[in-house]
Amino acid sequence: MNLLIVTHTVGRNDGQGRVNYEVVQAALAAGHSVTLLSTKVDETLSQHPRVTVVRVPASRVPTRLLQYQMFALRAAAWIRAHRHEFDVVQVNGFIAWTESDVNAIHFVHTGWYKSGYYPFHLTGGMYAAYQLLFTRLNAWCERWAFRHARVLVPVSEKVSSELVSLGMSRDKIRVIHNGVDNVEFSPGLSLTSQRERFKLPEDPFMLLFAGDLRNARKNLDTVLRALVKCPSNVHLAVAGGVANSPYPAMAAALGVADRVHFVGMIRDMPTLMRCADAFVFPSRYEAMSLVLLEALASALPVITVHTTGGAEVVTEECGIVLDDPDNETSLAKAISLIASDPLRAREMGQAAQALAATLSWQTMAARYLALFEDIAKTRKAARRNARVRQETVSVKT
């Protein structure tokens, strides 16, 4: 099978890029050939003899809005010229002005806009106006891309529901959850002594939060307010860049600065997770969070909310899923419940790890490959039947 994947980035250190990286690895292991139409590709993949990289250079136009459109136009032109060379064309969301066989959907801008938590409005100044334009235009482009795909692959049931609300047929939807590396992320031995490496105190019950700290979507503000209502032995480690972040000042204003530890951008997330006792992630909108799956694989009890993609896989045996992302009282109760019962926390962690074992990258990639192979077989059969019909017509004439 000759596969074309169209995406901005293919690599291990990018959310969507990691999904595509694992799909490519699985395709190569199965003996297939892969062409990557992309701006940035992992070097180990680009050197593989059955990988062809067609680089779409990063545009120098001034905004992401225009950069994405330039990529979409360039990618579409290349695909139209080479479409006949491939058995399957897979795109990711809106990325090219062209039809596709498979569209893997990692985020739905209409879902974010209509979630009730979208923060940008026209009354908020020029930056907010730009963000609003960015979201609305992306939403329109996505709907076009979804309509022009043969099969839609949302990364969660949450995203699947959003697609149906946009008028997409359930018959063309195949949910494939994201995966996790269960070797890289695993509990291992107790590493509380490693807390010093991250300047974390050894004794407290340590919550972990990880995400973008520049805006409110990940919902660290509610976690900080909940921490005020938790016992004093509960601390919070926060992974993410603090530049231009309002949350260090917010922690100080709430009087919990001594219990909140901003550890910055962390490359060694597996070790940091081994230093934690539980993972808290009440994101106001998420399609399918990789970091949540990584926490499960690290045997951490997970406290999350229904608005977070990935919450749908969390069972009561391994975590607590709340209804309202902004209810700090409910969040504080959930945190306190786990923090006060070490045996329960340990049992939940074991259940979390067992669940994560069913959500490996290999399982995810195998489902993508099965879909690709089915499409390729159907296309080959259609071509064969077309040739037979043409030959029959030629004989009759």
TrEMBL record:
Question: Keywords for this entry?
Answer: Transferase
Upper lineage: Bacteria, Pseudomonadati, Pseudomonadota, Betaproteobacteria, Burkholderiales
- Pfam families in alphabetical order: Glyco_transf_4 (PF13439), Glycos_transf_1 (PF00534)
Protein's name in the database: Glycosyltransferase
Question: GO: which molecular function terms?
Answer: glycosyltransferase activity
Tell me where in this chain the Glycosyl transferase family domain is found.
194-353
Domain (Glycosyltransferase subfamily 4-like N-terminal) ranges? 14-181
